[in-house]
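User: I'm putting together notes for a lab meeting next week and I want to include a structural view of one of the chains we've been expressing. I don't have a solved structure, so I'd like a prediction I can at least talk through. The sequence is below, exactly as it appears in our construct file.
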Amino acid sequence: MKFIADTHTHTLASGHAYSTVIENAAAAAKAGLQFMCVTDHATTMPGAPHHWHFVNQRVLPSSLSGVRLLKGVEANILNGEGELDMPLYVYSDLEWVNASLHEAVFRASDKATHTQALINAMRSERVDAIAHAGNPSYPIDAEAVVREAVKCGVAIELNNSSLNGSRKGSEPNCLTLASLAKELGAWVTTGSDAHFSHNVGDLASVSELIQKVGLPKDQIITSDATLFEAFVTKRQSIRKQRVQADSSL
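Assistant: Thanks for the context. Below is the predicted structure for the 249-residue chain, given as structure tokens.
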């Protein structure tokens, strides 16, 4: 399957990645992508930048090397309540928000806690996609998570890096998530999780998984530019409204 977007990429700003936005965009263009989400790690990840870094993404051009850039973040889920790790206002103008569990931030606990953390993060309406939910370090009730993703209109990410050893043991969990997404009608997005430019747009293992499961193209938001843009526009509107509402409390 051909993809038009990579919704999970990292730059030097993440602290443990090795390429610039310019280099990543050039790699995305070479891979034939139309869109690339810039999703550096949020502030509580060791080595990550201050939240002003994400506010100041407004200085980035709308496109580089002919690739549309979406200014975003990979936010850390902090606890079972699903709290994210930057001030509320920062999320208002972001174009893409991945949310995920990381060992350096969230101490692994039990399946119920991990599951509730993901569910509550989705219910916050600040999140566009749950990233690398197949991580075996954080067992989850996959069906409960996918059902909530359907209810909230949030995408489940299929993470190419997870399928290539970055989180060993993820493969069967990713297969389960993809199968449940197909069965329950969840949105799916595709992320390389590139920490070096050469990996931007490398979604080969995700493509194999999608073919194996038989996921319909119309559930994969990164399979079509019109579908992707409609998803992004809707999620941005929901996020802005929720941030405004929460800010007024």
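A couple of points you could mention at the meeting. The two ends are 45 Å apart (CA to CA). The domain at 5-247 is CATH 3.20.20.140 (TIM Barrel).

User: Perfect, that's what I needed.
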